[in-house]
Every structure is written in structure tokens, then in C-alpha cells.
Design a protein that fits this description.
Helices cover 34% and strands 21% of the residues. By secondary structure, it is an alpha/beta fold. Among the domains are: 107 residues, Flavocytochrome C3, Chain A, domain 1; 109 residues, Up-down Bundle (Methane Monooxygenase Hydroxylase, Chain G, domain 1), CATH 1.20.58.
């Protein structure tokens, strides 16, 4: 069949902060850039980021990018690549000022400077007193940034394909990435977009867990596309559970609440974090706080009828502070928890929040895969944001570093693509075999007959992941989970669509997302099963210690045979002394 085809200099899949910041660089350089998004761009999940973006501006307390770097390396449990971390922390300062000049309405101090709040895991002077590093627009920072970037892209005449679903990457006859096959959701018709360079910026995969702070769109599409293209995923065992999701629902209550002075209590009214992190208390690193909450509940100190959550107390801050600094949290608490935090505490429990791992890249956003004893760049393919892993977060991300990650590496990927396209000006046509493989993904869902429903299979996958790859993991629990996932994967061909219509058939999109969830879920389960230590967000009571001798290395999961490989951590920064691993206490 002849397929409608469009040609661009660059294709960006995903319209969150990373994709839009990259697109802005490209469009401003007069390149023809296409941005494909399965939702309207301002519905991308960056819009849900609440607390802020880290940068050592020193507007409130003394600060330095070097201290920020130390906190990020320590927060990563020493698994982060120190060259990429140094680069990100240095770039943070000009990045925030660039956003300010683009029109992001940051909250202000009385002197007119950008307001900065305290956040978890951040310190002055290499582990000293609490720092105030997180630049905030009330508690809607991601919302403010995403809308500003979208407006700037409209001004730069970026070409948007809104409500198009990316099915798969395609290659030319030489095996080089030449764009993607996408599905127009409105009509159900496929479209081939050919480009000289392709950037995956599809965000996270939190929907692989049943209780999550992530939107329904976060189904790991980019990571799964990379897996199917033969690219391994890195460090997928490290999945962050945010300590304060609304109990039983999963919606996010920002760490900014604790940054403003809120604190956690158990059923006895005790500020229990003092026992787990005597110095940082409620502003310890996220993995530390999440484990503390789960431990309190397990040991019978949980709140409520079933004792299955703890309370986040903020009423002592007063209505004026809550209304000014945390208006969105007050609204969320009223709607989803039925409480007004001005009057009573918010019931919270850890919720699946963020993937530290992803598609392996260098710090320029170029996808890099193992080759011999080193690595080689995948020509023409880039990744940035949560779907990528430049390894600035290692085993645990610090709050406020995710917005920073998408902005810094989205921008840098955009700049590198400009150079790549100028050096490779000729169009690459998609190979017919590659195109047939991508089209077969769509054709598979045209099969009729009885079978398992997409919703049923999705529910089983998500329950399996939540039960077997949660905050605490043991060999027995994970083996059982892997076995269940393998059984579910074998039953995938039995899954059938009930609705075969073309026009705006969201059931078809959900079926394609299910395949992505299955592949990404398997990468998390297998990677976690193999790592026999406790590090950052990966906590194993059967291996309670961190083992730097055996496990100070990045994991690489490949789909073929569920194979695991490993590569070393880059411990050498760009210009400063390395931070050697030491015990991580708060």
C-alpha cells in the first residue's frame, strides 16, 4: 500500500519539557521540525510537576553548583555519571534565567528575585545545613514552564502533530533510523514521518504500576520503541516511589509541602522521620522517606481504619502561606482526599512516580549502545527527559532535578541535532522491511474473535508490578513476579480488541500502549531481579547493604531473551575532583 509520507529535518516524539525545549532550539535555527504528541502538547505530563526546578542561584541562602553536584551524586547513591551531573548542575543556572526571559512566571521574593524553596536531599557546603535551591512557580512549576515553552514554539512556527500516536521507529536500507510510523488518532490512519534525526522525548512509564502519580499517557512508549529497535534500557530497576501520594489514589502531594515546613506523623502523632533521618528529617532523600512510611505502616503505626497510611501535617503553616505557596495542593487534597489541609492533615502513602532508568544516552542526548569494550552512538537517534538515561539520577533522583534534567538535556539534544542535520543534509528513505514490521503492529489489532480484553490484561500487568516490584523487594517476591509476567507475556497474542472502528478509537491506542507497558514492565522486573544489593530506590531486605565492589555499575536490559549486560559508572567529572562513594546518611 502507498503510505502518506511527510519529510522533516528533525522529528521529535513527545511534547513535554524535553521535546519542546529541543524543538525550540531547532525551529529557532530555521530547521523544519515536527513534534508528534498523543495529546495536546500542554496536556503532556510535565504540566503535573509541582515543586520546582533546581538551580544554585543563591537567592535565599548561599549556594554553589558544586554543592548541587555533590547532593545529586550522593542522592544517586553514587550510581550517577559524574561528568553528566557536573554538566547539568553548571547548566542549571543559565537554564533557569533563560526560562525567566522566555516568560515563566516564577514566584518572587520581596526583592524581586526568583523564589527558592527547601527540598529533600539538598545541602549547603557538601552535606551541611539545608539548602534552598528549588525555583518555584507556587506549586505549579511544570505547568508554568510547559505553557511558556509551547507558546515560544508557536511563535517559532514549530510544526505540531497533535493527537498522533507513535507506533514504531523505522530505518533506512543501511539500518539507520530515518523517522517513525505514527497513527492519527482522529482518523485511525497511519502516516510515515521521515526525518534526518529523531528525538525520543516520550516521558515516563509510571502506568506500569497500579498506584501512581503518573497520568494515563505515561506508558513508556519511547522506551518500548527503543527496545523493539534492539536498543537496551539502562538502570530500569531504579523506580522512584514518591513518599507522599494521596493514600489509596496515588495523586502527587509535592515535596514542596515539606519544603515549606509540613511534616509527617504516624497514628501516635509522632514525627517519625526523626528516627530514620535525624539530621534532614522530613527532607531526607525520597527513597529514605518512602521506606520509612512503609516501615511505619508495616509495624502497626499507620493511620486510618486499616492503618495503611500516615499523615502529612501542614495546618500549622496557616491559611495565608498555604494559599500563596501551595494552592494546587490544597485543591487536590479537597478533591481527592476530602480534607482541607488548612484544617486537618493529608493522608499519604508512597506512589510510583519516576523512572531513573531509560534509553542510554551521552550528555548530548545521543543514544549510545555497548560495542566491544566501549560504546557507540546510534546514528541519527536521540533521547531526552524521563524516557532517557544520561544517568544524572543514578539509583535515586532528587526532587527538583527532573524539570532540570528535561530542560538541560532537551536543549542540548536540540543543539546537537542542528549540527548533525547540517553535516547530514540528505534525506533517508525508510526501508520497506522496516516499514512492514511497524505496520504489522497495527495490523495485529485488526484480529477479530473472542479473547482477553485489553483492560483485563492491563490490570493484571499493573497489579503484578505493584505486588512484586514495589518499595521493598526480595528474591522470592521478584522471582514470583517475573514468572507471572512471563505467563502474561505468553498470553498477549490472545488479547483482542472489541472495537475495530477507525475514527477516534482510543481503545486501539490503549492496546498499543499495553504492548509498551508489558515490554517496559519486564525490563524493570528482570533488572531488579538481577541486582543483588540495596542501592537508592532498589531496596532488598535479603541484600540490605550497598555493594560497591560488585554492583557499582549500570545495568542494561535487552528484550531478546531478557538478557542483562552491564557497563561501568563514569566517576570522573569534567573539571572538578570526583566524589568517591561513602555511606549515604541524612
Amino acid at each position: 500500500m502507498s503510505l502518506p509520507t511527510r519529510h522533516f529535518d528533525a522529528l521529535i516524539i513527545g511534547a513535554g519539557g524535553a521535546g519542546l525545549n529541543a524543538a525550540l532550539q531547532l525551529a529557532s535555527a530555521d530547521l523544519r521540525v515536527a513534534v508528534v504528541s498523543k495529546v495536546f502538547p500542554t496536556r503532556s505530563h510535565t504540566v503535573a510537576a509541582q515543586g520546582g526546578v533546581n538551580a544554585a542561584l543563591a537567592n535565599v541562602l548561599p549556594d554553589s553548583w558544586h554543592w548541587h553536584m555533590f547532593d545529586t551524586v550522593k542522592g544517586s547513591d553514587y550510581l550517577g555519571d559524574q561528568d553528566a551531573i557536573e554538566f547539568m548542575c553548571r547548566e542549571a543556572i543559565p537554564t533557569v534565567y533563560e526560562l525567566e526571559h522566555a516568560g515563566v512566571p516564577f514566584s518572587r521574593l520581596d526583592n524581586g528575585k526568583i523564589y527558592q524553596r527547601a527540598f529533600g536531599g539538598q545541602s549547603q557546603n557538601f552535606g551541611g545545613d539545608q539548602a534552598a535551591r528549588t525555583c518555584a512557580a507556587a506549586d505549579r512549576t511544570g505547568h508554568a514552564i510547559l505553557h511558556t515553552l509551547y507558546q515560544q514554539n508557536i511563535r517559532a512556527r514549530t510544526h505540531f502533530f497533535d493527537e498522533f500516536f507513535a507506533v514504531d521507529l523505522v530505518r533506512d536500507a543501511d539500518g539507520i533510523c530515518s523517522g517513525a510510523l505514527v497513527l492519527e488518532i482522529e482518523t485511525g490512519e497511519p502516516l510515515l514521518i521521515e526525518a534526518k534525526a529523531t528525538l525520543l522525548a516520550t516521558g515516563g512509564c509510571g502506568q506500569v504500576f497500579r498506584t501512581t502519580s503518573n497520568a494515563h499517557i505515561n506508558t513508556g512508549d519511547g522506551a518500548a520503541m527503543a527496545l523493539r529497535a534492539g536498543i537496551p534500557l539502562m538502570d530500569m530497576e531504579f523506580f522512584q516511589f514518591h513518599p507522599t501520594g494521596i493514600a489509596g489514589k496515588g495523586m502527587l502531594i509535592t515535596e514542596g509541602v515539606r519544603g515549606e515546613g509540613g511534616y509527617l506523623i504516624n497514628k501516635d502523632g509522632e514525627r517519625f522521620m526523626e528516627r530514620y533521618a535525624p539530621r534532614a528529617k522530613d527532607l531526607a532523600s525520597r527513597d529514605v522517606v518512602s521506606r520509612a512510611i512503609v516501615t511505619e505502616v508495616k509495624e502497626g503505626r499507620g493511620c486510618g481504619e486499616n492503618g495503611d497510611y500516615v499523615m502529612l501535617k501542614v495546618d500549622h503553616l496557616g491559611e495565608a502561606v498555604i494559599s500563596k505557596r501551595l494552592p494546587g495542593i490544597r485543591e487536590s487534597s479537597k478533591v481527592f482526599a476530602g480534607v482541607d489541609p488548612v484544617v486537618e492533615p493529608i493522608p499519604v502513602f508512597p506512589t510510583a512516580h519516576y523512572a531513573m532508568g531509560g534509553i542510554p544516552t551521552d550528555r548530548f542526548g545521543r543514544v549510545a549502545v555497548p560495542a566491544g569494550k566501549g560504546e557507540e552512538v546510534v546514528v541519527g537517534l536521540y533521547a531526552a527527559g524521563e524516557c532517557a538515561c544520561a544517568s544524572v539520577h543514578g539509583a535515586n533522583r532528587l526532587g527538583g532535578n527532573s524539570l532540570l534534567d528535561i530542560l538541560v538535556f532537551g536543549r542540548l539534544a536540540g543543539k546537537d541535532i542542528i549540527d548533525f542535520v547540517r553535516e547530514n543534509p540528505y534525506r533517508r528513505a525508510a526501508d520497506s522491511e522496516s516499514l512492514d514490521t511497524a505496520m504489522s503492529r497495527l495490523a495485529r489489532w485488526d484480529q477479530k474473535g473472542d479473547g482477553i480484553s485489553v483492560q483485563e490484561m492491563r490490570a493484571e500487568v499493573r497489579k503484578c508490578m505493584e505486588d512484586h516490584a514495589g518499595v521493598f523487594r526480595t528474591e522470592e517476591i521478584m522471582q514470583e513476579g517475573y514468572k507471572k509476567l512471563c505467563e502474561l507475556r505468553e498470553r498477549m497474542p490472545e488479547v483482542r480488541l472489541r472495537d475495530h472502528s477507525r475514527v477516534f478509537n482510543t481503545a486501539r491506542v490503549e492496546a498499543l500502549e499495553l504492548e509498551n507497558l508489558m515490554d517496559v514492565g519486564m525490563s524493570i522486573a528482570v533488572s531488579a531481579l538481577h541486582r543483588q544489593e540495596s542501592r537508592g530506590a532498589h531496596s532488598r531486605p535479603d541484600h540490605p547493604e550497598r555493594n560497591d565492589q560488585a554492583w557499582l555499575k549500570h545495568s542494561l536490559y535487552s528484550m531478546e531473551g531478557d538478557r542483562m549486560d552491564y557497563k561501568p559508572v563514569r566517576t570522573k567529572p569534567l573539571t572538578v575532583e570526583s566524589f568517591p562513594p561513602k555511606e549515604r546518611v541524612y
